Write a sequence for this structure.
């Protein structure tokens, strides 16, 4: 019974959202606001269940890990934004998280991306075959794309031509990403239509 | 002195430097610092959730009290939020966790959030197509290239593409593996170098806009 009601609710909300294809209307607005409200509530409970309780409260209460009072302190002073006269305290929390992000950013960017990607671009160019052609194209594409984003010097001469070729590679990449995004959205659309025809209307088996 | 930017800049420098040192010293206590810091980061971020919720609910509460345009929908939003939180708390007390398969909280997730979210995103299939038509009309070489690549990739990923030509999926794969990957790698390297530069500027206190 609960499942049947749930399917009817889900189907109704799906149709409410699709009603926007005709024009903006109260049904769409209702579903939209409901979505935002429920999602905010869901993430609040999620944060409690998967962050605050297991990472902060349980270790302090059960394992006596009092060192966790430090992040708790920084978390609480983040909330001083509610009180204008002590709102400046929240900067300490922001500084803490930004410092952590910047520190991880230095090592993470070098070890996690720059070195592996440079290494993957240093590929063999031996022999006259299709693989060599592809490898050459990859090296050429990476270099010209980097040239396109190099703004420290006026783009003229070699830089100008490099930049023009770079934008060609970038357009191919954007086109491919766009194609992929469209396909992902269409597969979601197929999923919703399948739900309506199968789970709700039972037309498809 | 306490209210100034000196202490925050000092905190940023110390925390960032410790993170960098911990990377190079894989022994205790430095070895575990990265993991511990990420936990601490999650805890602080958890508290910021309250700020976000306060901002959202506060804005809609004000809309209701001032009876501004479409305030009725704000009631729907607050009711949805309150209902979900109350059910989440009740189920946490009743079952130990609100995320139990048998809980009403999971029911809300399955029959409200999942359909609403996937329908919202699938709605974009229509708008992305019309936006693409307007934005990418083949006005110049670059736009044409983008459009053609998008069409090839889309066709190459569905059975229709293989019906048109058996080589189309292979060509799509080549686009993804060679020119697309080259540009993506170039963009990624540019972003990483930029992130590296900004991180160093932040640690040295040159970049302070995050404190304003």
């Amino acid at each position: 019974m609960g499942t049947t009601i749930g399917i009817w609710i889900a189907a109704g909300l799906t149709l409410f959202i699709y009603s926007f294809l005709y024009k903006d209307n109260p049904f769409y607005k209702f579903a939209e606001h409901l979505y935002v409200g429920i999602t905010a509530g869901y993430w609040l409970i999620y944060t409690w269940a998967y962050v605050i309780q297991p990472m902060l409260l349980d270790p302090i209460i059960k394992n006596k890990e009092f060192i966790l009072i430090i992040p708790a302190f920084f978390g609480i002073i983040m909330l001083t934004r509610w009180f204008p006269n002590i709102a400046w305290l929240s900067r300490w929390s922001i500084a803490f998280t930004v410092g952590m992000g910047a520190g991880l950013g230095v090592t993470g960017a070098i070890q996690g991306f720059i070195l592996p990607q440079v290494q993957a671009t240093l590929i063999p160019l031996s022999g006259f075959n299709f693989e060599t052609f592809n490898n050459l194209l990859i090296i050429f594409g990476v270099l010209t794309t980097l040239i396109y984003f190099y703004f420290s010097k006026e783009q003229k001469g070699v830089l100008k031509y490099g930049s023009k070729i770079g934008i060609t590679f970038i357009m191919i990449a954007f086109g491919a990403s766009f194609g992929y995004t469209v396909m992902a959205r269409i597969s979601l659309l197929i999923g919703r239509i399948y739900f309506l025809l199968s789970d709700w209307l039972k037309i498809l088996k | 002195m306490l209210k100034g930017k000196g202490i925050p800049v000092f905190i940023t420098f110390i925390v960032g430097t410790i993170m960098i040192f911990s990377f190079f010293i894989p022994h205790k206590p430095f070895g575990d610092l990265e993991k511990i810091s990420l936990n601490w980061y999650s805890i602080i971020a958890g508290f910021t959730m309250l700020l976000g919720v306060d901002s959202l609910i506060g804005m809609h509460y004000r809309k209701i009290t001032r009876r501004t345009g479409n305030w009725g929908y704000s009631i729907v939003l607050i009711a949805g939020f309150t209902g979900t939180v109350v059910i989440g708390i009740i189920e946490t007390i009743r079952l130990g966790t609100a995320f139990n398969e048998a809980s009403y909280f999971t029911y809300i997730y399955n029959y409200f959030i999942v359909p609403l979210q996937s329908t919202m995103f699938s709605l974009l299939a229509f708008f992305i197509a019309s936006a693409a038509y307007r934005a990418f009309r083949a006005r110049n070489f670059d736009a044409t290239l983008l459009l053609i690549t998008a069409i090839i990739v889309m066709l190459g990923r569905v059975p229709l593409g293989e019906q048109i030509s058996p080589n189309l999926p292979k060509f799509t794969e080549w686009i993804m593996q060679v020119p697309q990957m080259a540009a993506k790698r170039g963009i990624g390297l540019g972003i990483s170098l930029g992130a590296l530069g900004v991180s160093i500027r932040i640690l040295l206190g040159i970049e302070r806009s995050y404190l304003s």
